[in-house]
Amino acid sequence: xxxxxxxxxxxxxxxxxxxxxxxxxxxxxxxxxxxxxxxxxxxxxxxxxxxxxxxxxxxxxxxxxxxxxxxxxxxxxxxxxxxxxxxxxxxxxxxxxxxxxxxxxxxxxxxxxxxxxxxxxxxxxxxxxxxxxxxxxxxxxxxxxxxxxxxxxxxxxxxxxxxxxxxxxxxxxxxxxxxxxxxxxxxxxxxxxxxxxxxxxxxxxxxxxxxxxxxxxxxxxxxxxxxxxxxxxxxxxxxxxxxxxxxxxxxxxxxxxxxxxxxxxxxxxxxxxxxxxxxxxxxxxxxxxxxxxxxxxxxxxxxxxxxxxxxxxxxxxxxxxxxxxxxxxxxxxxxxxxxxxxxxxxxxxxxxxxxxxxxxxxxxxxxxxxxxxxxxxxxxxxxxxxxxxxxxxxxxxxxxxxxxxxxxxxxxxxxxxxxxxxxxxxxxxxxxxxxxxxxxxxxxxxxxxxxxxxxxxxxxxxxxxxxxxxxxxxxxxxxxxxxxxxxxxxxxxxxxxxxxxxxxxxxxxxxxxxxxxxxxxxxxxxxxxxxxxxxxxxxxxxxxxxxxxxxxxxxxxxxxxxxxxxxxxxxxxxxxxxxxxxxxxxxxxxxxxxxxxxxxxxxxxxxxxxxxxxxxxxxxxxxxxxxxxxxxxxxxxxxxxxxxxxxxxxxxxxxxxx
Length: 658
Known about the structure:
The protein is globular, with a radius of gyration of 27 Å. The strands form 5 sheets. Strands 5-6-4-7-8-3-9 form a 7-stranded parallel beta sheet, with helices on both faces. It has a 6-stranded parallel beta sheet with strand order 10-15-14-11-13-12, sandwiched between helices. Helix 20 (456-468) crosses helix 24 (539-545). It has 4 domains: 9-241, Rossmann fold (3-Layer(aba) Sandwich); 249-447, Rossmann fold; 452-554, Arc Repressor Mutant, subunit A (Orthogonal Bundle), CATH 1.10.10.10; 568-646, HRDC domain (DNA polymerase, domain 1, Orthogonal Bundle). Helices cover 43% and strands 12% of the residues. With 658 residues, it is α/β, with parallel strands linked by helices. The two termini are 28 Å apart. The longest helix is centred in the C-terminal third of the chain and has 24 residues, at 568-591.
């Protein structure tokens, strides 16, 4: 097999391969009696993947990253939510001697990751503020006794002197295999969730210069990527950037009008499955939660004003499907491994596109269809602008002008997205430097028919004005020149004497803004990212100016065609799907695990469509392995048989589809 690496037996001496294939960390210094032989352990990464996690193959990009980490190379991983980032450091941690340190910014993220590893029989733990001193000491002993392979810790604890001394002891006695920095965008002030503590993580490279570092995040612009590499002192890292496109997600922007809460309630009532509603403030979270609960929707709040215990309880109830909706600030969701979230609604305008992409991306992590809906109003813009103005130095009270400039530019990008007429994916992906030609057929702008008009001449006027202003101004200034505004700055710069001055009076301010945003989204114009948003021409701009490229703009939405009623077979399949979801919940509650651990939604969908009525047929469903067939098969087959009998019609003959 090409592209594999040999795994030394010493790396696996602490793992017990039982006859059932389960793997657990024993803390011993020799292979147990049930361990695989040296020949069996020397394996390709795919075989180790199967041993430890039960997967038959890597997802795109994972194998290259795993091999680089095993070879002690620094790595920067930019991979969308649901792409499998965690495995990129978890699998190498099991194949390398020593302890892997995972730096994680949220308690919820740590607990979720550790629980998932524990479910796979892997020795992992976390250290955070929820633990007593005695429990911390106990876990430290487990680490030094080699019973733990992955340690999750927050940056605040990591950089304290007592903990650094403990790490020195770990490095001396058992070794530090890798330092994994999750949510690495937090290191950059240009990221959507900047945390000052992350800036200090460079100390780890100075303290342990030979230990490789892997930095991981779901989103990072080119500038954020550069900042991550510089701030973490990565040395010639392998950089893996996966496509940011999530084709299973439907994106939509809706106007936030006076009856917005009623619209939100109706939307949730019409959408099946679990969902998240994001709000900008704690007050709004509580208000929306109460409205939903009063209407009979099972919903809970999540925000920083709640105690750690309440937040943990609410999160657990949501993950285990005890409630259907979590209403939260952006403090919720980072690293939560709930793959079957069917909708994410932003009731308030997000502060930046990067954060919106990551938060909305918590929908549909299982690859099944999911909806991402944004409510947009100009009132939200004023609210965020007010919050931006509050960014001041806590010591002097002086405005933090640089941070305010960055925040305002990020807000403009969100407004461009909300008002944009192009394919939503084109706008989103262009933000991350990825080209997408549109026509995704999974967003409101693509699904709702629009006519297109040739705006090439107007685009030439716009780009010519940018050129004649020497590429030193932003969009508002260029439009003012085009529309012949009598602004003092224009007159002082003598730009009222330019040939492009006043040649755009025949179009409204909003029409010119729409054109300018479209030129940016289509890559026909660029904008600086240093907080000042200055327009710059590129090679494609000159193609437009030289009449070598046309520019087309989409017109406002046309009425949506009425959807046809679902077929009888579709209705029955949905009814069976709901029954199977209830059965799955019962089984999950019996075991004290989230329902998705039993079966994924995609497997339930196949069961409801194919309706297998024998164990052999049930075993052919995708996602049903031998272990799950033996454990759950009889109860699910009985449920399907009972449903078919209740319908008074036999199920269609199963044809072995998967």
